[in-house]
Task: inverse folding
């Protein structure tokens, strides 16, 4: 039998037929299509998680200026924010720090895991690691989050877009947020349906987000958008776990994101010719 | 090896040196391939940057990635950040030419001109086509097209009949499965480059045998 699937509908059918979580269907698909063993895949997952962890630590403990000079030290500042002023609570606080940190590591030519892209690389580590640390869950749990996220990312890549140049930031940070939301739901013990619902909510909440990098660099406003992608994942997971509200099926949402992305003018798709990129004061700051 | 499906680590990956898959990771890959194709050790390299590469190369570390690839660093090698210093220590002189005027067919295009100590030189044009994937589209004055996603054998030869048949026979003898074979000719029709992409490793015997053939001038390999 085949473990391959083409969309959310196919994924959920496999999950329900075999009574398996999304992560398990995804790893069986990889074993079948790639002709590789489970251990091999899990070693690669652990190695990727380690790269994510180092990318966070480095920017928090030893920040360096980015190549474009617009970033450096933001994660450390938030990390050191006085507890009495950290309004978001410990898990979200950790997620924000990690998202900013990975963006800094990326912008200063450090090593990151593109998830799904380099520009949105902060979202998944932020959510996976903050949940892992704050809730003291097992290694198996964080691995399942990683695998779950890759299943949603695969569907979005296959049927939609994860390119800012093609469909704006909603396709990059939006996709990452959807992947992270779904991962969170599985790590907490939600159903595959709730995972997909969380992903859909996360996408709809960032729908239309434009890609407007100042000076064409992956720095501003990309870094803080990674933070909001992570926080949005927490929000979407909480809504989905409570079965609150009506959500659009993820396959429909994937098409909607692509359609909205194509409707964006080219000035708002990674050309640096619109949005924040042309803010007069930001452009002024760039000249320094 | 290229795959016909999108897997876990295509989505949650690659592990790469930031900040940009096309401007950093792809640039390193192009230079790495250029270094593989150039059979001598380069002591001087001139990079000409076009299009978007010319506009934003510094902030994306494209220059460091291009130098790093020439030093043999892959796109996930943290040494890329220090490529300028490393090049100096290796005795490699680099120069960047920013060309915002010449029209190129892809926005992320670079020409890499490598020179060796004994005066051998090779020009490679590469394009970074997105998500870290790249294409080599020119070698000296011949338009070519290959990606480095396969094990690749690049044969420069006189444009005489029988050469391609000889190459395929050598491969078949060693049971190497050819994924793609394409031949590209110089405008004057005298020289040609045949690019063979295979599904498995190409044994050294094959390379040696092809090199010895009368019309063959040079054989270079890109091994993964």
Result:
């Amino acid at each position: 039998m085949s473990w391959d699937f083409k969309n959310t509908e196919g994924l959920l059918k496999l999950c329900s037929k075999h009574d398996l979580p999304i992560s398990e269907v995804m790893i069986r698909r990889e074993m079948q299509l790639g002709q590789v063993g489970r251990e091999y895949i899990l070693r690669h997952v652990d190695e990727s998680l380690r790269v994510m962890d180092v990318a966070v630590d480095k920017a928090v403990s030893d920040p360096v200026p980015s190549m474009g000079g617009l970033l450096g030290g933001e994660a450390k500042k938030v990390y050191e924010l006085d507890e009495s002023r950290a309004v978001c609570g410990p898990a979200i606080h950790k997620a924000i720090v990690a998202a900013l940190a990975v963006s800094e590591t990326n912008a200063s030519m450090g090593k990151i895991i593109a998830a799904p892209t380099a520009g949105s690389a902060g979202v998944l580590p932020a959510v996976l690691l903050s949940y892992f640390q704050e809730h003291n869950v097992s290694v198996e749990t964080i691995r399942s989050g990683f695998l779950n996220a890759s299943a949603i990312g695969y569907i979005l890549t296959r049927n939609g877009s994860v390119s800012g140049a093609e469909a704006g930031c909603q396709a990059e940070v939006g996709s990452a947020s959807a992947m992270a939301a779904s991962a969170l739901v599985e790590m907490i013990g939600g159903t595959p349906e709730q995972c997909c619902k969380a992903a859909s909510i996360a996408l709809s909440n960032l729908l239309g987000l434009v890609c407007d990098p100042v000076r064409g660099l992956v720095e501003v406003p990309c870094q803080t958008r990674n933070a909001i992608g992570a926080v949005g994942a927490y929000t979407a997971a909480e809504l989905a776990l409570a079965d609150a509200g009506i959500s659009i099926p993820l396959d429909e949402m994937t098409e909607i994101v692509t359609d909205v992305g194509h409707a964006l003018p080219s000035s708002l798709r990674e050309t640096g010719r619109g949005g924040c990129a042309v803010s007069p004061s930001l452009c002024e700051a760039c000249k320094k | 090896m290229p795959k016909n499906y999108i897997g876990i680590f295509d989505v949650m990956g690659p592990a790469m040196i930031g900040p940009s898959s096309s401007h950093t990771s792809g640039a390193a890959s192009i230079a790495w391939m250029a270094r593989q194709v150039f059979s001598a050790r380069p002591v001087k390299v001139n990079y000409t940057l076009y299009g978007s590469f010319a506009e934003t190369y510094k902030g994306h570390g494209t220059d460091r990635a291009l130098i790093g690839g020439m030093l043999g660093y892959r796109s996930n090698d943290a040494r890329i950040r220090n490529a300028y210093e490393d090049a100096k220590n290796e005795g490699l002189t680099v120069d960047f030419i920013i060309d915002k005027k010449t029209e190129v067919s892809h926005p992320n295009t670079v020409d890499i001109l490598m020179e060796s100590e004994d005066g051998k030189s090779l020009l490679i044009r590469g394009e970074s086509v997105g998500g870290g994937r790249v294409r080599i589209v020119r070698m000296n004055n011949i338009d070519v097209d290959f990606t480095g996603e396969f094990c690749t054998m690049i044969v420069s030869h006189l444009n005489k009949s029988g050469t391609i048949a000889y190459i395929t026979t050598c491969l078949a003898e060693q049971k190497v499965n050819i994924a793609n074979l394409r031949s590209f000719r110089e405008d004057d029709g005298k020289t040609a480059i045949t690019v063979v992409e295979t599904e498995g490793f190409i044994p050294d015997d094959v390379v040696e045998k092809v090199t010895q053939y009368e019309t063959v001038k040079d054989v270079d390999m890109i091994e993964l």
Summary: The helical segments of chain B are 8-11, 21-37, 51-56, 62-70, 83-90, 163-173, 204-212.
